[in-house]
Structures are given as structure tokens and as C-alpha cells.
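WARN retry 2 of 3 for item q-0093 after timeout on previous attempt; input resubmitted unchanged.
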Amino acid sequence: MARYNGPVCRLCRREGMKLFLKGSRCYTKKCSFERRQTPPGQHGVRRRKMSDYGTQLREKQKIRRVYQVMERQFRRYFETAESRPGVTGENLLRLLETRLDNVVFRMGFATSRNQARQLVAHGHFAVNGRAVTIPSIQLHEGDRVEVREMSAKTEYFKNVKDALRGTQRPDWLSVDTEKLAGSVSALPRRDQMPAEINEQLVVEYYSR
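OK item q-0093 returned
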């Protein structure tokens, strides 16, 4: 399955909620979801009650689209989460939250995960002093993420430095605004991860 390159606002309408795939635009009145919230397609809203399987599938698709991962990759994340001690659903969300592209987004260096992925792929970030270009790198407690010296001089990151001062970020991350760097203070707990996600439905989907 190829990566989706179509209109991302359709994905928000399909899941019935904002997935914040267009960055800052999603917080304005220009957001397409604000103007039209019905599912895409000519049939519009279906009156038929959704089955348990359909509910589980929709939740799995929603999480995939929020974190922008492909089906096969998402399945591998689930298998890894299942093999680890603890609650499988929480382990899954923790793996997704500690991806490098998501951490860059959460720290405020990008306005969306897609933008964060692009910035990482273009070599603008270093992890623990080493340049990285792989957005899916898994971060651990104590890992340090920083904007590389040459990149910090660009106009984009000069603007980011100003924007960071008013940015809220999760408690499990710490950010040094002046140095354009941050670190994973601790692995996120369930109450520090998105509340609108029901990861138990994903566990039930893969446990059929």
C-alpha cells in the first residue's frame, strides 16, 4: 500500500474529528473540517449502526492517520507492544509517541507530524549529537534532540525560536528554547498521551 497523497481534510471528515494534519491551519476558521464535517463520498452520512468490527477498524485507522504510519508498520508496532510487559494498548501508544517525528512535533519544532517528518528527513536534527534522517527512530528516556548548528541559522528555525516561547508541550518532554534543543525527560504515562484515542479497540481488532 502506497502512502496517501490525497487531500488530508478528507481523512479528518472520514474519522469524524480533527486529526490536525495541516498544522496551524487546523486551528483557524480556514480548516475544512469546520465547514463540512460529513464523511467524504456521495452517500454522505450513513444511518446504519456500525458493528463492533467497524468501530474497532475505524479506531485503528484513526490512530494510523494521526501518527502517519503505514499499515504494515503499524502492525509491527502492535506486535512489539504485545511482546512487552505491561498493558498492550498503552505500550502501543508509547511507541508511537516516542517516534522521532512525533517528538519533534510535540516539542514545537514543527506544526504537524508531516512537517516534522520532512524536517528530520532533510537532516535538520541530531539525536544525542549524531545527525539523523530517519523519522521513525525510537527515542528513549534521556535522549536529547537538537536542531543542527547550520539549520539553526535558517529563517525557519529563527521563527520557530520565537514561536516556542508560547508553545505548550507534554510534561514528559523538556525544551531549551534558546538552544533549540530538548530531551525526553521520561517515557509518557497514559494520562500524558492523547485522551481522544481508545487504544483498547485496536487491541480488540488485532485479537479477533
